[in-house]
Amino acid sequence: MTETMLAARMHDVSAPMLLERIPTPEPGPSDVRVRVKACNIVPNLANVLQNWTTWFPQNPLPSLPAIFGLDPAGVVDAVGTDVKGFKPGDRVYVNPGRYCDSCRECRSNNRMHCQNFAFSGYFGLTPSSGIMLDRYPYGGLAEYTIAPQYSLVRLPESISFETGARLGYLGTGFAALRKAGVGPTTTVLINGISGTLGLGVALFALALGAPMVLGTGRNRELLDEVKALDPQRIHTHSLADGPVDGWVKELIAEGVDVHIDALGPGADHSVFNEGLKSLRRGGVAVNIGATAGPVPIDVHHMMDQQQKLIGSCWFSAGEGQAMVDMAASGAVDLSVFEHIVYPLEQVNDAISGISVRNGGFSNFIISPS
Amino acid sequence: MTETMLAARMHDVSAPMLLERIPTPEPGPSDVRVRVKACNIVPNLANVLQNWTTWFPQNPLPSLPAIFGLDPAGVVDAVGTDVKGFKPGDRVYVNPGRYCDSCRECRSNNRMHCQNFAFSGYFGLTPSSGIMLDRYPYGGLAEYTIAPQYSLVRLPESISFETGARLGYLGTGFAALRKAGVGPTTTVLINGISGTLGLGVALFALALGAPMVLGTGRNRELLDEVKALDPQRIHTHSLADGPVDGWVKELIAEGVDVHIDALGPGADHSVFNEGLKSLRRGGVAVNIGATAGPVPIDVHHMMDQQQKLIGSCWFSAGEGQAMVDMAASGAVDLSVFEHIVYPLEQVNDAISGISVRNGGFSNFIISPS
Amino acid sequence: MTETMLAARMHDVSAPMLLERIPTPEPGPSDVRVRVKACNIVPNLANVLQNWTTWFPQNPLPSLPAIFGLDPAGVVDAVGTDVKGFKPGDRVYVNPGRYCDSCRECRSNNRMHCQNFAFSGYFGLTPSSGIMLDRYPYGGLAEYTIAPQYSLVRLPESISFETGARLGYLGTGFAALRKAGVGPTTTVLINGISGTLGLGVALFALALGAPMVLGTGRNRELLDEVKALDPQRIHTHSLADGPVDGWVKELIAEGVDVHIDALGPGADHSVFNEGLKSLRRGGVAVNIGATAGPVPIDVHHMMDQQQKLIGSCWFSAGEGQAMVDMAASGAVDLSVFEHIVYPLEQVNDAISGISVRNGGFSNFIISPS
Amino acid sequence: MTETMLAARMHDVSAPMLLERIPTPEPGPSDVRVRVKACNIVPNLANVLQNWTTWFPQNPLPSLPAIFGLDPAGVVDAVGTDVKGFKPGDRVYVNPGRYCDSCRECRSNNRMHCQNFAFSGYFGLTPSSGIMLDRYPYGGLAEYTIAPQYSLVRLPESISFETGARLGYLGTGFAALRKAGVGPTTTVLINGISGTLGLGVALFALALGAPMVLGTGRNRELLDEVKALDPQRIHTHSLADGPVDGWVKELIAEGVDVHIDALGPGADHSVFNEGLKSLRRGGVAVNIGATAGPVPIDVHHMMDQQQKLIGSCWFSAGEGQAMVDMAASGAVDLSVFEHIVYPLEQVNDAISGISVRNGGFSNFIISPS
């Protein structure tokens, strides 16, 4: 550790990030400092940087100049006086979700429902969540970051920092599968299976034992690549080949048990709806995708058929720990990703370059140290 | 019991019912025969009789000529050889939900998710549900009906047949409150609080201890009548006075814990959406209303805020038993209804006359015997 | 089908069964008749036949002369008029659990809690359960049996009748694992892992993805045979080598997430308690074994450590269906059993012969037809 | 605030506390300082002070000299830099449960299962929990205490500090009722209903709507006083008048839905067992009492009857908030307590004097400021 560190900072909304030396931060009593070895450039980052203040003016960005960077992984470098479970040298992923610990939901230990929930290095989820961004202003696009002990996932030796930095989107999928109760007797449909989000859902649906994993997407080559992960259990369908629900009902006449929607922000609303229509009576849909705008949903049908639509946002560090433990034991295979690694100096190139990628298989990483 | 009984039968879709004498049916081994003392004329019956085959051509009506009648209450008159828990003379409500007991969900004891679920005396909920309508072809608009023992709710002496016949719409509300986990620390919003469905939700939300019950509707006089049930806990809002969510946030800044939508079939979609927007982060919406057509829902907001939309259809006989036990112990007050009773001979008048009513307070009943 | 069938009947408690010709029974409207191809001789049968009336005088045996036989598998031969989901020729396992459908729990669709729950062909679980034994008096030790449609598990072609007849003990273990929420992140301890019950728990714990399965038993050779099923995930310990909890804490310092107790009736109470002491704070124990008599439990420790002890009895047909579907898809391996098949004529030999067996790997079967 | 404060400290195990002036502590970034207006002297405190190191040598007491005091209530006096939800002047109860935020359970937001869970001002629950006692060494028997923001319950104006200081034992009962799912259709048996713990269970069972609350105890006068709280719903039974289960089955033939055991440390084991035997098939028992030593439990019966025994320890601050909100809205009546208030100087008298009390109605309070 030195007295200053290199950080990429955004001084104006949508302006390119500048590389600057700033004082290396000190951890508070319940925090750790992490030397960042890898930080994910998530597909949606460019959108957030450019459009957040227009699209979601009610919710805050980090105060400017801001260090972004959603999913850091690295090595614990210093620990606060009240940190007992982690020590310098520990390899960790930092879950960016931040809890206020004083709202009613936090005090009830429902911290994922925190009324001030924010993503450190990204944005806040509620109008009042700026207090959490101010409390944790160091995102992952810097040599060091500061993280509360509750946010840490211990990385087994067999998990690289690049894979660790992928946990955010993977965890979003894992939490959705858990909310839907997916296991060895549950069939699952995934809209957007070949994307960064959907591919993670598929990997963990397989790991949880789902006997049939149905996935839709646009790019047939990518769909084939996904199917190759488990040709017996995975079935894919190109959106160019007709409505999703028609295809699903051919494979499972009564419909699927669970639908996870992982579509990107530009997706056609009809695809979301076809996912809902693919459910069996009593089925459960979970939305983790970025489908935006008002989706015309047949709530009467959902009622008649006793169906649920669950909105699921992110995951706990404990769920992250479960995921890497599964990877370490061989229960899930996280070796399928192709890591594209940039130094911190090329952060702006990385953010704009991510538009050309091999679906969810590509993993864009900044390695600041 | 005599060899024949009087029954109202519909010979053609949307034709008036004819009063006819037909053979009195015998109960099967696990069924009982009930002498019907009261059968509800639910608000939606006229719609079903006239428009079902157009609106929901995929789902069956009872075979013609058909005996309709959704919610019968009466006296057990004969029992099958395998019926041990009920005996002639028992006062009962008959839950019209019918389970096939052979689909995967039934064999898993999730019978509310039965793939052949049907409402005896009303319609089937799935394309294959005609088998259940054929198995139980006797609705409540006749002197006798046949009901499986699993459908029976034992009526305490203090519950009249007229009140018992109201259990269907009440139970729909009760089951919704249970799915949402409503209790003494849960705030509840009810869209359509003064209607037949919404009023029942309000009564049981109070009984379950909800500290604040917020309700919306159109008719200010009816809303005042609802508020008078518990002026301290109930708050009402006329849709003419502005959007629902704005009003809710004035009363509870962070939003309500639970929203139950009990709107009628003609409701404006914006009201449904304002209900969703009234939820706090982590809140739960349950739809039991008849809102029809595609409702434009902001699924992205639901995801960000970890919110659920649950479709809930009907309730079990056990839930019905819980409700009448609560009424008997004084936990819920079911004395608020005004019963309008017709003989079976005036069934057609009753069906058309229900359009003029005092909101959910009116209870239209046919008394066939 | 012929007018009479061969059946093994017990005329006096603990007397040998007699082979007799009796009228072939007809199925009721919601029942099927099954031609029995295989019926399990469960390890505890001899005990039940000889000691039930002494040990559990409050709960009934089937009326004498009685046809016992807990777990039949065979071919549907005739169906009642109300059976729509099964037809003659279907290969099925018959779950012997019988529900009354009229008690409060049944009417709430909690049929596993039926107050008249009985095992057809075995015994009743409550003082009033004789009504269910009388309703279904035909156990599996006969050429034909009668079963309600809700009790049927459709056997995939790849599952033999001998394996199907093993579903009872397997399902008891599967249901316990489900109640404890076992999955890819849950460590599991099984007391009695090499027995008929415990081996099934182990097979399904592996199938559900448990990363560590710890098992105890007496016979070291059998324990080695169990460990060979998955040498990496399964760890075994002989009770001769010291207390269970000491061994467990060496492997998992904080204790196991879940303990399933599957000990036989003669087990030492200390082993049950060592299982409880092996739990981590917040851990869950499920008892499915036959440990009898008062077990001295430290309820204060369970309270301090937020632990649960769940009593779990049997499983639904839906859970049975899930299990065979998992076997058909390869998720669980049921090929490990050694079937010892007797004709119906040797039923008494089979019952007494089962005391000599290769632990849970042996599967004693009567093949009546 | 002044630079020093008065505190009662124990310098040796079982020695009387000494009144001393020590430096007034400063809150950490996520903590608040509370000026203590009332601190409960819980019935078990004398036992803990004298016998803990003998009875539970594996679990730590606070480091000596130690400030004890389990349940403080008072006024926030200073807040750390990261505390946003509370401010000086707020009236609060301090939940003494402390979480480490770094073990797997904490990082999964199951903080009640924290592997380092400790009661500040009382003792630790696990061998490693000393780290939490060292982190929060200030119990309530002093002019000021330090508390993390997650531990705070905001007291409505209508709740006095004396009542607030009672929340610990009340919350233990409330959490047990929630784990058992008690509501308007659940019958409840409470062993030890007239004690400090049991009386709280009774008050909240009534508030949650339980239709029948059955309670046992020794002192008939106290039982009568409890019954007078709601003569219609509460039924009491003196242990001198025969076994608990016999009495229960007379009132409810099939048994109670839920049993909460709140017996004191000296209770006869047979009473605990009679509580278990009072459960219906499928019933749930929760132990929150101090019954010590091995209780001989019939686990075979629990298995046959699908019953659970849940150990429940304490409650979250969110549950505490729910309780006082219920009191403020009138849903629960907490006005039944008789407060016996001592100044801090008489702390040793109070601790020894508590043995003479009017059952759970007496509330022994130290008022340090």
What is the structure about, briefly put?
The structure is a homotetramer of 369-residue chains. The first copy, chain A, has 369 residues and is α/β, with parallel strands linked by helices.
Identify the overall geometry of chain A.
globular
CATH superfamily of the largest domain in chain A: Medium-chain alcohol dehydrogenases, catalytic domain
Q: How would you describe the oligomerization state of the chains in this entry? A: homotetramer
CATH fold category name of the largest domain in chain A: Quinone Oxidoreductase, Chain A, domain 1
Task: Tell me about the largest β-sheet of chain A.
Answer: 7 strands, mixed
- Estimated helix fraction of chain A: 25-40%
Which two chains touch over the largest interface?
Answer: A-B, 43 and 43 residues
CATH architecture assignment name of the largest domain in chain A: Alpha-Beta Complex
Tally of strands of chain A: 19
- The overall number of domains of chain A is 2
Under CATH at level 1, the class of the largest domain in chain A stands as Alpha Beta
Estimate the strand proportion of chain A: 25-35%
Ends distance of chain A? 11 Å
Task: Give average pLDDT of chain A, whole number.
Answer: 96
Give the radius of gyration of chain A: 20 Å
Poorly predicted spans of chain A: none
How many helices of chain A does DSSP assign?
12
- Secondary-structure content class of chain A: alpha/beta
